[in-house]
Amino acid sequence: MPLLFLPLILLAVLALMVLLLPLSLVQRYRVGTARRPARRWVATLNLALIALSIAIFLFGAAVTNVWVPQTLRYTVLGLAIGGALGAFGLWISRWEYTPGAVYYTPNRWLVLGITLVVTTRILYGFWRSWHAWRSGLDGGAWVVASGVAGSLGAGGIVLGYYFVYWIGLRRRLQIEGQSSMKRRQA
After folding, report:
1. Which of 32, 44, 35 has its CA nearest to residue 170?
2. 168, 93 in Cβ contact below 8 A?
3. Terminal CA-to-CA distance of the chain, rounded, Å?
4. What would the pLDDT profile of 23-33 be if each residue is shown by its tens digit?
5. What number of other Cβ atoms are within 10 A of residue 160's Cβ?
6. Residue 139's pLDDT band (cuts 50, 70, 90)
7. What is the DSSP string of 54-66?
8. Smallest Cα–Cα separation from 28: which of 106, 93, 90, 104?
9. Which secondary-structure segment (H or E) carries 86?
10. How many other C-beta atoms lie within 10 A of the C-beta of residue 72?
């Protein structure tokens, strides 16, 4: 008898995830635009974990490229665009130097733009998958028609942005640490 409820439970969990998606995107925007202290260990940890994520992401894109054409190309292009946005984001972020710490506030418009890219790709992916699945394309071709390559490209933009942003943040902290050490010695 409990096994009969398993599909219903899985459907409820999926529906809950879809319903909470807008809340998670709003929270991501709020956290992404908050003023926060720049800490070297946080930047190093984030950089290492994002580098690992990018490696796994590229491996997944390479495997997916076997079945869905252009996936690896869109992924690499997304990473490059995200890297350029990350460098631009570092340049337009607000930096505050206090005697004990460095604070930074990412640009609201850039964070909003990246959040909207993710939101648009998620919504388009749902819409396109539904229509492709309903049209009954044969041989699993609905996966190709659902826009997987574009979704991975959008994911690449996010990963590329944060990878370059954390590299730049860590570099800025390293330079600031060296200059504050010189000021103390003088």
Report:
1. 44
2. no
3. 77
4. 888 888 888 88
5. 25
6. low
7. HHHHHHHHHHHTT
8. 106
9. helix 71-92
10. 19
Token pair recorded at residue 89: 């984001």
Residues in the chain: 186
Give the other-Cβ count within 10 Å of 147's Cβ.
Answer: 21
Which residues lie below 8 Å from residue 40, measured CB to CB, with a gap of 6+?
170, 173, 174, 177
Residues 6+ apart with CB under 8 A from 155: 57, 75, 78, 118, 121
CB 149 within 8 A of CB 74: yes
What is the CB-side half-sphere exposure of residue 180 using CA atoms within 13 A? 12
pTM: 0.78
d(CA 182, CA 186): 6
Q: Rounded to an integer, what distance in angstroms lies between the CA atom of residue 161 and that of residue 183?
A: 33
